[in-house]
Structures are given as structure tokens and as C-alpha cells.
Design the sequence.
């Protein structure tokens, strides 16, 4: 019982004096947080020390203390490197296209789904469209590689129905980008409708009834009630997505790309993986990912600030 | 009512058809693959299989299960999923309980919270993480798959909010009866939050089962890979280790691949009906603030 809460207790001076006033350290609670704190310290904070590698010419044999310090050498190399600019452009292109499409399509789908009267039908549709979100990109990568192959079923349909040559979806620069963007939208649009459906169901029905009385048809109602009510949630989702704009899905690209498509399909994360872990360029890879993390941090903080400003959205 | 007008009725019909088509499109690729996987190899190769198997056979599955590394990988995944989920539930839930306490009762609580949230905003990146595991000597060990992802700050925050909504009277009653924090947690908060815990457990299990990248970089040797990583080497990299050479020669790559892909999707497909009930609530609670 918190003694600070009831002023009346303070009046019973005799009984209060016998008790020790003030704050008692809740050892149990500290103990309960301890395992998580330790785990996070070792696996999230300790690696931050490893960032020093970005400023060294790290050699495994010499370790952190033995490797020569080279300052901003890797960062300078990064910005002068044409390839790095290319992959940054790829990353941004993928991320922004996905953000835009991942807003418009789930939004529209939620609006359409909301018009369905039959609950059973609505549930079945939801069950089906949520499914791709839970499939791993290993599975989907395999599926897409099979479907989009030169002799795959999609090309078969294209050649027989439209009479065009087979498209090398995963090998041609333009088509690879289309595949990346649209397959991600296909995978996530169902799941992304959840937020919009939830917001839709929280709109006051009295608004619709009033509009009904004033003679508005369903379409006008959608235009003047539904969409304006959804603007806040749209802004929240958009700004939060912006915080992630440098994270064009590693899993997806990793499982779909191949050396021939690196120029148009490589993103920052896949580049860091190859340079860092496969080629052993620890220092350079760390520099690149540090650069990305710093920018992401700034973006995330800005986006949370904006989300809070526009719609009062807070994490805790 | 607008429902009765003809234009709306027409729209309704087209709408339902459109939605149905889109929904089927979400299922179709997986379904097509299933059909290919149980078809005859030559028919699959010729591209004749569309929505119905031709020459029904389980040959491809037999071959995939017969891969010598398959069972070993399966066991690694089972271990990592079970141990990882139990550990994560324990560690995350007690931390969430402690953090759900007000700052007057638990000074420093905000500091702890920021300590955790910062890791959501900024991470050291792939290379330092790898070097850490290397230096800890955890390469090629099960712990490398379990420990790094143990604390999921997002889950802690979800549970924290849930615990906050537990009526204060329950807690006060327990304190009056002489229960300490841990006892209160175990006897009161845990039973009350079972649905929320179950959801988080389910998501953690799915996460562990599908996680392939950590297996790829931390584990050496095909028999140490968790199932998802092993599948990745088969499906995406087209590796043929562990297969009987005679099998590789005669079997159509396509049906073999299809069976591998379907197997990799199977666990999530089995769990999906149970997931579905819970996750909508979880997402909404996490995102739409009261």
C-alpha cells in the first residue's frame, strides 16, 4: 500500500512513526528485469562496441586493439564508390514504391471488404488474404522462382494468351524490380488491411445515419465520412513506414536475387552481407551498415515524432 | 436504405467477385505447387500440371524425407523452437511484469524501459553481431540461435500494456495476503494473461521455426542447420547434398523442389488456423492506442 496515496494516513502520527517512511527498493522487481537486461547488454549493446571496426582496418588476427585505426577512410570510399550509390538508389526505390503501394492497396481493399455484408464470406476472405504474410520468403522465393521461370506457368500463360516472348522475370533488371515490389505487396496487403479494418469499425455509425438522412448514397458516404476518418491512421502508418525506408526487405531480395541482377537488384543489406560475411571485409561492411543505422535512427525518430504530433500515437 | 438501390446491388455483386478472385490469388501459387509436388515427374517437367495433379505420386516427398540431413535439421529446429520459446516467454514476461509497475513503486523503471527501447531504434549491424558470436565461442552452437533474439522488446511492451490493464484490486489483495512480487506474478498475473501469453508464444514459435538466416551464418555443416536454413539451401541455392546421387539423376528437379517448398510451408499452414483467432487482437492493441 503506497503511503503517499492517502493523506489521511499521515494524520495517525503514532502508527506512522513506527513505520519507515519513503521508498523501499523492490529487489524482486529488479531481479525480474535482470535476465532481460543482461541478455540485451550482451547481444545488443556489446556489439555496438564492435562499431569501432568501421574506423579501423580490422584484421581478425589482430583483434580490436591491434588493428590499425584509419578514421573515415571507409566512409570516404563508400561515397566515392559508384556501386554504393547504386545500391542506395535501389534500396530507396524499392522501399518507397512498397510504402506507397502498401498504403493504397490495403486501404482500398479494406474499404471494399467493409462493404461485404455476409460475415462468413468476409471471414473466409480475410483468412485467405492473411495467409501470405505468414509464409517465409524462403518458401515464397522458391514458389516465385518456379512460377516465374522461363518455362514456368506465368510465362506459359503469357505466351499462349498474349503471344509475347517469355519474360526473364528474375534476370531482367526492370522485371526483377517489378517482381520485388509487387510480390511484397501481394504478400503483405492482406495483413496490412487489419489496421484499416479496425479503424473502419471504430467510425461512429451515427455519422452514416445522419448522412443517410441527408440523402447521401453509399459512395458519397465513403467519400465524405469514411475516408476523412481514416486519414489519421493512414498518416500514422505512412510515417512509421518511412522510418523503415532503408530496410527494403533483406529476406525477400536475398532469396530472389542472383549475381546477374546485382546492379539493379542489390540493396544495402545484401551488399553488407556479401562484403562482410562472405568476403571478410569486416571493416568496410561495418562502415556501410553503421551509415545505414545512423540514417535509420534519425528517420525513425522523426517519424515517431510526426506520428505522435498528427495522431497521438505512442509506443508506451 | 442504400442497400436496396440497384446501383449498389450491382456494385455489391462485382465487389464480391473481385474480392473472391483476389483472395483465391493469395492461395493459388501455393496450391499450384502442391499439385506439382504430387504429380508425375515428366508431366511436371513438361509444364502440363496446372490445378490438378497428373499421375498422383508421393515420390518427391519420399525423396526429400530420405535426404540424410533432413531429420537432423528437423531435430535442430525442434530443439531451438521449444527451448527458445520457453526461455523467451519466461524472461520477457517477468521483465514485462516488473516494467508494468509505476515509477513510484519501481524507481528506475523508466531508465530500464529506455534501455530496452533504444535497442529497437539502433542496432550495431550484422558484422559486429557475427564477431560477437565468434568471440563468445558460440559459433555452431544451439545457443547462437536462441540467445541473440531472446529478448523481444516489442513483446515486452505488449505484455507490459496488458499487465497494466489488470485491475489493481487483484494485486492489492495479493499483497495484503502477504504475497511478494514474484508470487503475485505467478499466481495472479500469469493465469489472467494466458490468452496474451499464448499469442506471444505462438508468434515466437513461428518466428523460431521460420528463422533461417542466423542458421546460415552461425552454423557449419549441413547436419547442424535448422530446418529453415536447410530448406533454404535446397530451395534457393539448389544444393543437392545428402541426396542419393541416383535420385538426383532420375528425379525431375521440379517435383522435388515443389515438395521441398511445400514441406517448408507446412508447419505454418498447420498452425495458421490457431494463429488466426489471436493475432488480430494483438495487432490492434499494439497499434491503436486507447
Sequence:
Amino acid at each position: 500500500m503506497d503511503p503517499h496515496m492517502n493523506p489521511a494516513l499521515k494524520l495517525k502520527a503514532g502508527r506512522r512513526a513506527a513505520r519507515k517512511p519513503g521508498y523501499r527498493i523492490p529487489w524482486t522487481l529488479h531481479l525480474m528485469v535482470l535476465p532481460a537486461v543482461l541478455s540485451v547488454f550482451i547481444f545488443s549493446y556489446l556489439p555496438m562496441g564492435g562499431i569501432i571496426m568501421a574506423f579501423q582496418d580490422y584484421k581478425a588476427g589482430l583483434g580490436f586493439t591491434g588493428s590499425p585505426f584509419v578514421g573515415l577512410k571507409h566512409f570516404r570510399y563508400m561515397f566515392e564508390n559508384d556501386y554504393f550509390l547504386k545500391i542506395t538508389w535501389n534500396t530507396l526505390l524499392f522501399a518507397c514504391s512498397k510504402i506507397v503501394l502498401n498504403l493504397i492497396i490495403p486501404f482500398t481493399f479494406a474499404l471494399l471488404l467493409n462493404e461485404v455484408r455476409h460475415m462468413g464470406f468476409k471471414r473466409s476472405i480475410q483468412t485467405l488474404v492473411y495467409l501470405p504474410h505468414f509464409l517465409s520468403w524462403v518458401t515464397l522465393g522458391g514458389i516465385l522462382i518456379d512460377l516465374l521461370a522461363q518455362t514456368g506457368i506465368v510465362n506459359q500463360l503469357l505466351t499462349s494468351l498474349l503471344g509475347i516472348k517469355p519474360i526473364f522475370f528474375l534476370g531482367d533488371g526492370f522485371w526483377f524490380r517489378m517482381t520485388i515490389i509487387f510480390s511484397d505487396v501481394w504478400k503483405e496487403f492482406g495483413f496490412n488491411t487489419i489496421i484499416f479494418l479496425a479503424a473502419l469499425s471504430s467510425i461512429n455509425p451515427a455519422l452514416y445515419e445522419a448522412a443517410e438522412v441527408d440523402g447521401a448514397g453509399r459512395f458519397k458516404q465513403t467519400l465524405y465520412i469514411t475516408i476523412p476518418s481514416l486519414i489519421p491512421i493512414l498518416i500514422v502508418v505512412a510515417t512509421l513506414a518511412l522510418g523503415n525506408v532503408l530496410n527494403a526487405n533483406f529476406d525477400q531480395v536475398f532469396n530472389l536475387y542472383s549475381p546477374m541482377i546485382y546492379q539493379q537488384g542489390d540493396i544495402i543489406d545484401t551488399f553488407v552481407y556479401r562484403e562482410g560475411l562472405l568476403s571478410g571485409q569486416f571493416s568496410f561492411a561495418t562502415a556501410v551498415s553503421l551509415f545505414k543505422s545512423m540514417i535509420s535512427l534519425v528517420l525513425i525518430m522523426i517519424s515517431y515524432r510526426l506520428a505522435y504530433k498528427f495522431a497521438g500515437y505512442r509506443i508506451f | 436504405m442504400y442497400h436496396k438501390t440497384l446501383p449498389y446491388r450491382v456494385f455489391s455483386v462485382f465487389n464480391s467477385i473481385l474480392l473472391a478472385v483476389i483472395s483465391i490469388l493469395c492461395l493459388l501459387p501455393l496450391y499450384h505447387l502442391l499439385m506439382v509436388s504430387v504429380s508425375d515427374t515428366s508431366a511436371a517437367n513438361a509444364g502440363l500440371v496446372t490445378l490438378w495433379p497428373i499421375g498422383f505420386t508421393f515420390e518427391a516427398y519420399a525423396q526429400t524425407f530420405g535426404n540424410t540431413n533432413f531429420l537432423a535439421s528437423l531435430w535442430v529446429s525442434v530443439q531451438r523452437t521449444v527451448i527458445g520459446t520457453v526461455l523467451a516467454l519466461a524472461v520477457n514476461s517477468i521483465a514485462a511484469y516488473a516494467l508494468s509497475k509505476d515509477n513510484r513503486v519501481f524507481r528506475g523503471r523508466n531508465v530500464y524501459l529506455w534501455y530496452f527501447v533504444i535497442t529497437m531504434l539502433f542496432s550495431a549491424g550484422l558484422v559486429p553481431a557475427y564477431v560477437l558470436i565468434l568471440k563468445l565461442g558460440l559459433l555452431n552452437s544451439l545457443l547462437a540461435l536462441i540467445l541473440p533474439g531472446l529478448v523481444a522488446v516489442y513483446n515486452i511492451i505488449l505484455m507490459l500494456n496488458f499487465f497494466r490493464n489488470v485491475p489493481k484490486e487483484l494485486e492489492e489483495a495479493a499483497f495484503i495476503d502477504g504475497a511478494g512480487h514474484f508470487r503475485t506474478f505467478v499466481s495472479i498475473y500469469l493465469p489472467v494473461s494466458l490468452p496474451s501469453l499464448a499469442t506471444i508464444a505462438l508468434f515466437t514459435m513461428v518466428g523460431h521455426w521460420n528463422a533461417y538466416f542466423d542458421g546460415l551464418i552461425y552454423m557449419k555443416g549441413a547436419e547442424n542447420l535448422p530446418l529453415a536454413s536447410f530448406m533454404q539451401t535446397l530451395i534457393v541455392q539448389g544444393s543437392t547434398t545428402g541426396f542419393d546421387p541416383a535420385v538426383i539423376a532420375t528425379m525431375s528437379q521440379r517435383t522435388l523442389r515443389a515438395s521441398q517448398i511445400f514441406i517448408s510451408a507446412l508447419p505454418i499452414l498447420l498452425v495458421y488456423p490457431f494463429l488466426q483467432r489471436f493475432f488480430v487482437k494483438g495487432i490492434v492493441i499494439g497499434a491503436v492506442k486507447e
